[in-house]
Batch of 3 targets.
Target 1
Amino acid sequence: MKYYILIVACCFINIVHNQNCDSRFYGEVHDFHDGSPIIAATIYIETLDKYTTTDIDGKFSIANLCDGKLTVSISHLGCETKRLDIQINGDSFYVINLEHHIEELNEVKVEGKTITKLTKTSQETLLKTDAIERFGAFSLGDALKQISGVSSINTGNSIVKPVINGLHSSRIIVMTNGVRLQDQEWGIEHAPNIDLNTVGSVNVIKGADALAYGGDAIGGVIVLQPFNVSLKDSLYGKTIISGHTNGRGFSLNSSLTKTYKKGWYLGAQATMKRFGDFETPDYNLTNTGLNSKGFSIKSGYKTFERGFNIYYSYLNNDIAILKSSHIGSIEDLVNAINSQQPLVVEDFSYTIEAPRQDVTHQIIKADFYKRFKKFGRLQVQYDFQNNQRFEYDIRVGDDRDKPAIDLTLKTHTIRTNLKVDSKSDRTYKFGLNVGYQNNFANPETGVRRLIPDYDKYDAGAFAISDFRLSEKTNLNFGLRYDFSRIDAKKFYLTSRWEERNYDADFSNIVIDDLGSQLLTNPVFDYHNISASAGIAYKINDNNSFIFNYGLSNRAPNPSELFSDGLHHSAARIELGDLRMKQETSNRISGTYKYNRNALSINLEAFYNHINDYIFIEPTGTELTIRGAFPVWSYNQTNASLLGLDVTANYKFNEHWLLNNKSSFIKGRDLTKKQALIDMPSFKTVNILGYSNKKWLQLNTELQSELVLRQNEFPDNNFDVYIPTIDSEVLLDISSPPPTYHLLHFQSDITLNLSKQTNLNIGLNITNLFNTSYREYLNRLRYFADDLGRNIMLQVKFNY
Amino acid sequence: MDTLKNNLKSTFLILLSTFILTGCSDDDNPEVVIQEEVITTLTATLVPDGGGTSITFKSLDLDGKDGPNPPVFTVSGDLLADTTYNGSMEILNETESPAEDVTEEIKTLDEEHQFFFQATNSIATFTYVDFDGDSNPLGLEFTLTTSATPGSGTITITLRHEPNKSASGVSDGDITNAGGETDAQAIFPITVK
């Protein structure tokens, strides 16, 4: 901008001047970060076809130039080439700063080329755009299962939560476009509100080592990066349409982005998805359709030195939940488990009826950044999220159309990050964040609140340093402190209050006694310290190691603290505990990478010791006036998780490849000396791929997915009295389903329509042989089989 | 560029003040959730046909479906063998004062409700006395006939909301295909002598 004003000013002066052709253009070229001179940079005057190079002090000089405007390009190996319009008016001196750290240029690079890992010393996996686009019609959890060690915990097939090394929900941070997603992520039936079509790439970091995002990610961090915008005058877009046989569904997504060389950009994107009832090989899954609508707009100004971004996104998911999963009492549950058949099977329909959930998530974000010469980059960001969640249960009478759960969660966050990168061998990152969150549980539901009204205040600070000791060794240290306060107003039934012995421990928080109910005001403060240390060592070109240690703490979430009463959509009584303490995780991990010629192997091992691990498990039944219901209670124990994730790739030749991804995890309850509940079982995926660039860039692969039965599980089975048959029946709520093996096929071709446009056509078949199976980590496994075959045809048009 | 900076600054200040203002939420206490169709008490009064001692079965669960306390089932006495009793049901919500008589509501919405009676060890049989507008059974009024021989077992009384009264066996009092929602269920230990 300074140059620009100068040039404009000079232009006016220049008009009245006589032409002078003895002028000299001279100056110095410096590294933007540390101000050091750049040697042997090329200075090329495009308009005159003259060039020179800088000397050992970064200086240059070109003589015998006429006064006037010149276009100069300055280039250097490992630097972004800089083009400048300069004004020569007599001898003219310029200092030119070049950006030397190629890996940090992501603000100004062309789309798709600068997707990089975020850490050097963590167990991190990167999914690029093509790997995500295939899942545009599905959910984040489905897409992430491509990564060894990542599985999912499901409620049916549309509510999919990612599980990283056995941990999920509040133990995973999902960052989308720089915003930490706050969408009531505590519940198993609360899937992340993400439209994959807004995502350019995904970084999954296992464990809590990426402290910049939060200190409580005991499981890991999922960073969803937006598509990069390029610094050139351009208008481009993309449309993806897919059709599916299972669920008779379609998905449509379209985006358009306009960019300007000066740095301005404007983009918009919209997605629509519609599915009807899905089917297993043998029957329809009645009431499992979904209707999803979303859009986002982004705009901003980006240059290397400074810029800002504004972003808004809207996503609404209306998801039907299997009708057979609605149980009126424990007798229905016993019948469902013992019959192994869904109670309700009706003809195919697109209708979405209760039980269902209707969730709307909105994000507004604004951020500003500036780079300082010889120092680093400062970023300030504000974001606001509004999460509106309705859960509709099958209800009768006047309550028929009323939601059973109506929660509004509003979150404001301000965060600032400072990255000091003036030295090429070390980088420091500092950050501060403050947040305020308010949850409102609407009393109009006519159902006692499962999650109370609360205010939550957060503040955090971190410092991370990265050192490059040598070409072979990278070190990382991080430290973080978080404070959080939760201030809730909750009604307890007096009988529950006494049953839990809260009257002995928490009598001071009772603020109103309504006879059968007490209004309480629990206020809890949590101080969390987290730390990480990692080293990456490259033995030679073929072998490298990463070792890492991470300490993290997680404060209990509102569900773990406050749940009490019948959760209608799950037909179970869920009980939290006000006495919950923080979880503390100590995780050590080691990674070995081998890469030589055609073979690459990546082994990731970890041991995670979690003190006061919070989990929910079935603990018996409670008899009420409406019959008996199973009780699930949150408990704490000391736990250990031990696992190994394998990724191996072998290329036979330029066409054929073989790939293996396997993960093994063992979770132990160290206090009770038994297995932990809800741990993913051993899974191995083998892929045989063939690709040929000459055949319309054909890619095909045949995928074999083998999931073994989980043989290590706690036995929480109990006997239930069924009055209608006057006998005790065993409720087998624990036994995992048997081993299953599925085959999948996928293929795609690309047609280049013109230089700028291409058409990609993909055919994917999942569960090729229409195999019947049930998955241990699907909460609806008690009621019905999992999905049968699906044939998907996807057309992708880039323009 | 300076205007851009200023714009950013003011935008940020606005955002900051929104943040602070919304941060100062009011300290009002949340409203109590008013639950509809709460049932705490189910009472069956049995009067022997031809006179004698009336027997009452009562189920009382004052903390309702969310509370930890189980319902208390009481039976005022033993039933006599080979006897027909004329039964009537009373359903109350005793969380309110005075107690709300839910029986009236069931009577008004008779097509949406049905009682089901089951006995183990064949200690008793039941017949419906009252019917809804569609001539389907309701069960606020019923007869209970005890077995000819003495014995003991349980009698289960279930009130279903919105059962499918036209499903197979439902109008004969078989709950198997009834569907709907259980409003109340009570299990009474009974001796027939």
Note: The longest helix of chain A spans residues 2-16.
Target 2
Amino acid sequence: MAVAVRVIPCLDVDQGRVVKGVNFTGLVDAGDPVELARRYDGEWADELTFLDVTASSADRETTYDVVRGTADQVFIPLTVGGGVRGPEDVDRLLRAGADKVSLNTAAIADPELLRTASRRFGAQCVVLSVDARRVPSDGTETASGFEVTTHGGRRGTGICAVEWAVRAERLGVGEILLNSMDADGTKAGFDLEMIRAVRAAVRVPLIASGGAGEVGHFAPAVHAGADAVLAASVFHFGELTVEQVKNAMRAEGITVR
Amino acid sequence: MPRVVVLDYGSGNLRSAERALEHAGARVEVSDDHRTAMEADGLVVPGVGAFSACMRGLLEVGGDELVDRRLAENRPVLGICVGMQILFQRGVEHGVSAEGVGRWPGAVEPLRAEVLPHMGWNTVTAPSDSVLFAGMDPDTRFYFVHSFAARGWEEHAEAPSSRRRSVWAEHGEPFLAAVEDGALMATQFHPEKSGAAGGALLRNWLGTL
């Protein structure tokens, strides 16, 4: 039997509260990350991702509390990203109970950070998060036609997304979270071409993100080479359950838990 | 309530192991104190990251000696992930071999698979008399994250130990997912991250204490 394709709900956490529309029925407190984590665990989510969107660093303590509270009660892997600047942030999150930490902007500014983190904490807990898009007509052409962006996809960097993934793998990351900024929010499906391009270039597990709108969208991402699929709003708004997504993938011959 | 010590030698997320064991019904202390660790009903040796770094950390707190002393008295020890790997004779990373605790023959080597690390939920094949997997459905999945593994036993001329039970999993090729060897048991996957299945396994282990 093969390793199962993972389905990963992603929660945006701001000052210790889940934001961006949570529409579950029967929740005592829809903004409580721990309660939501437990709910997703009950739905057979294979892993959870917290994206810390807290703007002020003074409020970041709340994130550690959330990680601690979740790790104390939910015994599935937990990845935390957003605002991770250096090895000390990684260390604190791991100590709080995160299993993996994802790096994005800070790694673009200083790629060596990936090597440092991987050497110190192990490749298994370092995830590179890439916000990528197709190079716009007025942008700088890249080898793959995809470029890395910052600022939530608003700013292009001119860095080739595929080359960046390859470089990060060499620097020691254990996994790549590939977010399509073009597909994000469209609910029109994953950017399969982007998944294929990155998959062909790296050997580490690949998480596809951005564009999921219906159950039928997930299997094509896996067939394009994703080892895991991540989604946020479709799960939070209760449009889809993790179980429905898994059933649809199973019907396509994909191994799920 | 069984008392368990999670050995603290600077390796990884100990909080999850502590909480999952508590959840499974143990009283848990995270410590590197030998007396505390000797007195506990069970000792858990966790471990993440590189084999050689884990081994260094283990030696610094005298963890190898602790494991030997406990096993000499037939006192249960459970290794998890790299905490399992270091129980073998050696680990080979990037072509360099590092010495392990050497309780079991053979080497821990890179897995030959298309995608590495082996990250996610996989099934295992356990013998019917397994203690850790007793009462579990063969479809049960556990959470793995590793690039290296013991891909088999190196018995050389010796006869394989009859009391040793091997549990296998596959990622690119077969490897040892768990071993039950009297008081010494270990899992390559993370029971503390394997949800309900992991909880059942930990309860099975606590039942041996």
Note: The first strand of chain B starts at residue 3 and ends at 7.
Target 3
Amino acid sequence: MSVEEQRLILKYADEPSYTNDIACYIKHGGYEELKKAIQLKPEDICKEVLDSGVRGRGGAGFPAGMKWKFLDRKSGKPIYLICNADESEPGTFKDRQIIHKDPHQLIEGMMISAFAIQAKLAFIYIRGEFFEGYKILERAIEEARSKNLLGDNILGSGYSCDIIVHRGAGAYICGEETGLIESLEGKRANPRIKPPYFPAALGLYQCPTIVNNVETLCDVKHIIAMGAKAFSEIGTPGNVGTRIWCVSGHVQKPGYYEFPCAAITLGELIYEVCGGLLPGRKLKAVIPGGSSSKILRADERFKGKLKDGTEFDWGIEDIPMDFDSLAAVGSMSGSGGVIIMDDSTDMVEALANINYFYAHESCGQCTPCREGVPWMKKITTRMCSGNAREEDPQMLINIADQIAGRTICAFGEAASWPVQSFVSKFRDEFEAKAKEQELLRKQGLETSKETTLI
Amino acid sequence: MDLKQTTLDKIDRLVPRYPDKRSAALPLCHLVQEDQGYLTNDSIEWIANRLDLEPINIAEIVTFYPMLRTEAPGKYQVRVCRTLSCALSGAYKTCKQFEDAFDCKVGSTSDDQLVTLEYVECHADCGRAPVVMIGEKEYTGVDSEKAADLIEQIKNGTVETE
């Protein structure tokens, strides 16, 4: 197994001579796939994407071709394509690289996808903090328009479609596809309940809508370039194509690294690709797919059966980096945000940091989430300020258990999973802290300590 | 409310692009805020009127999205990301440095109106943590040395904001 990156999406992005203008993109073979695609039948492109088996890169890992298949084409209403460029899952920074360094790849992927689903209009919903990314995309779209690669009668094909770049304004929930749609309609980003509001049937303006992640839409370009079969041979069955792993936290070389699915293990990613931990430190825990994914403890043994029936018995370093393996160990590959924590990390503080985030970002629509997530924040915050109570660890679990599965959107799970996994896997640490503070308080001694993560 | 002609032109070009003009609500909030610095009741009413909506339709989004402001910020808006990856890399320490340098508690504006210091949530650049945004410009790897540099640049007015 090699630890050399094998880049597909970011192939040219970091070459010193590569620039993000259209001339450079075309010089590197850009827009050839769009030219090819518009000669094909839209349904054939959809079939290629379905056959490739590509799974969405935004978090849920749902097969993109299947999502397209659910599109309600009989309604007679216009179809919309939305690129989800909200990139708001903590620990994730891959879409930023594509937007900044290779915006035309995204535009080409979008126009191929738009043609395939016969979209009337396409949107890029970009997070508000990407000021520079917004300007880059606006410029790239004008460049593409001037070459008739989008807009009216694209390359004489008779097909017309434009792209509107729409800026968000700092709300995490806009990454949830129905929340994003509400936001794009000019409202608060309160997610919609499914059913009936599956975007493919009742999306933007109650019209059939496809929402895909930036990386997924770039994959479409490569599927057309190499064909579904060749694409599906990258990675392993069910886990096809490359993934851009975004590594942050306590490693020597944090950054984004692209590999075919399952080509490396978590251990190789940490120790070989990212140069290992800081001197003298030991691995304590890893959050493998953005802050909502369940934490993995460094000394855990992971045993079970994969989808295909193969049994596994892994240590944390043996876990292959792909969708199914990370799901099999009870977490998820999510959006590819891998957060590494070494033995200097106080797990109560780390959870307090995460709870602060989710309490801030709950849209407030569902009671269990609106009330429960701030409760969890309150508890972990008091545990960091010296006011922990002995019952706090269990109370955290009780609250989390009553949020997950009881909300309109998956935010309820996203906020509960960290709490459930941190407390159950590091229970000793949570209980020790609670007991120690109780005891000190009874003796009238100072309980608060300086914190670094909250 | 007096909007610059360039802002009005942008608004006039933008609104008809959307199949439903209510979709232009958030972009208009951005444009008016960029023009005026923040959103007042007058500007909320103006946007509502421009889009044939009720003021509450705009007010409810202004109060929902963290980037929209209803109070004038200081000359420099300093946003420190405090989410996990940045925190693991020392973001809280970085923020404390800004607080001390400007005698300004995070979440407020300094008395001399020079700086508004805020915590923000993940800015999607976690590989180069800690991340600090000044105006529209992002600074990465802001350790104590870089923070000291930025503080100096803010004080002498040379810091880049876009």
Note: Chain B is about 45% helix and 10% strand.
